[in-house]
Amino acid sequence: MTTSNEKSPAKTALLQHMKALCEANREIVLASLCTTDGFPISCFSISDLSNQADKFAAMSSTLAALSDSSAMQMKQGTCDITIVEATSGNILFVKTDYIGKPCVLTVVAQSKMSLAEARYKTKKLIGEIAAITE
Predict the structure, then answer these.
(1) Confidence class of residue 3 from pLDDT cuts 50, 70 and 90?
(2) Using one digit for the tens of pLDDT, what is the confidence trace for 30-70?
(3) Residue 2 predicted with pLDDT over 60
(4) Which has the closest alpha carbon to 80: 41, 40, 7, 130?
């Protein structure tokens, strides 16, 4: 299931990368990109999670901002990634750029996938997203 408000070449490329990640790694059940102020850009899910893209965007941007503020307050610089370890898996919130704008990528991985592998796959997706141009 996918969501995307428009079909520009950049949005099509973004969705293709997110879909490829989820389809090649069935343990990843959601990949979502939103603006830093909480607006959804694109969402792909192998389950019915993508119908909540607006909620995920709001949560993702808020957690990323809170993590960044916490890191700066504790004199650790900026926060690049926030990880939530839950009973059924891990949720990664990562700052990235998409067509020159700061964004937050959210990846939800089931517990069958190790945190290290989820981080690796997410970082690879960030590189692909950052390379997209208009």
Answers:
(1) very low
(2) 999 999 999 999 999 987 776 788 999 999 999 999 999 99
(3) no
(4) 130
Q: Which residues contact 3 (CB under 8 A, 6 or more apart)?
A: 40, 42, 43, 44, 50, 51, 53
Distance between CA 57 and CA 47 in Å, rounded?
A: 17
DSSP state of 1: -
Q: Which two tokens stand for residue 21?
A: 């990640």
CB 85 within 8 A of CB 115: yes
* Residue 32 burial class via C-beta count within 10 angstroms: exposed 0-12, middle 13-18, buried 19 and up: buried
Provide the 10 A C-beta neighbour count for residue 51.
12
Percent with pLDDT over 70 in the chain: 95
For 75, half-sphere exposure in the C-beta direction (CA atoms, 13 angstrom radius) is 0
Taking the CA atoms of 28, 85, 124 and 11 in sequence, report the sign of the dihedral they define: positive
Chain centre distance of CA 2: 14
Single-letter amino acid code for the residue at 98: Y
In this prediction the pTM is: 0.90
